[in-house]
Amino acid sequence: MIDDEILAGIEAVLMITDSAVTAEDLAGSLGLDEDTVLEAIRTLKADYDGDENRRQRGFEIRHVAGGFRIFSRGDYHEVVKDFLTAGQSAKLSQAALETLAVIAYRQPISRPRIAAIRGVSVDGVIRTLLLRGLIVEAGKEASTSALLYATTRTFLDTMGMNAIDDLPDIAPYLPEDADVAELGAEDTEVLAEIDGALDDDLDDETDSSAEMSRVAD
After folding, report:
1. Residue 142: how many CB atoms within 10 A of its CB?
2. How many Cα neighbours within 13 Å face the side chain of 106?
3. Tens of pLDDT along 57-110?
4. Do the two domains 4-74 and 89-183 of this chain adopt the same fold?
5. DSSP symbol at 18
């Protein structure tokens, strides 16, 4: 049985992070082994999911981009959406449009790279675009572990396009000496795609750890 203090520590970290945290990172920060971390995450997940004796929570742990994050439960997406959009204009702000353009042309792209291109923080804008369903988390950058973002089918439908290749060429709208490549990072290696099958992934990681232990012995 996992100690309550361990559960609370992992929970606290996952509550404040804005990107997925690997079992290895959690183990290192809390002074635990990875098997204990994975077991603790199973325990937390079961607690959040509820059963006949416990109510289901409005949030859940998901395995995304090679790590773990706490999200509001998908069943309540409409509730959260209505709350966040209440009283807001249906139109996107200029900042949101500019950020969306960067993502569309340079996807998949990380939040730090978007911020570097625009020269301002894009945290709030990213949340808005995610909420509107115009972008989605699309994996993890291998070199920095930052989450990557890409446009969605909703984006294409909104823009009246069949594929991202239908985007107009931006070269005519740039200064003659501008290099389009400067608008984004070099080709990004996607380390892991989003995977919602938490139980399978946890089992795989546990099996891998056991196999490595046997090899080491």
Report:
1. 14
2. 26
3. 888 888 877 788 888 888 888 887 777 666 555 678 888 999 999 999 989 999
4. yes
5. S
Q: What is the pTM of this model?
A: 0.46
Which architecture characterizes domain 4-74 according to CATH? Orthogonal Bundle (1.10)
Nearby residues of 144 by Cβ (< 8 Å), 6 or more positions away: 110, 112
Residue ranges covered by each domain of the chain? 4-74, 89-183
* Residue whose token pair is 């795989």: 204
Let me know how long the chain is. Answer: 217
Tell whether the model's pLDDT for residue 47 goes beyond 60: yes
**3-class DSSP assignment, residue 75:** helix
Dihedral sign from CA coordinates of 194, 198, 204, 209: positive
Cis-peptide, bond into residue 108, ω within 30° of zero: yes
Between residues 48 and 214, the one the model is more confident about: 48
* Fold that domain 89-183 belongs to in CATH: Arc Repressor Mutant, subunit A (1.10.10)
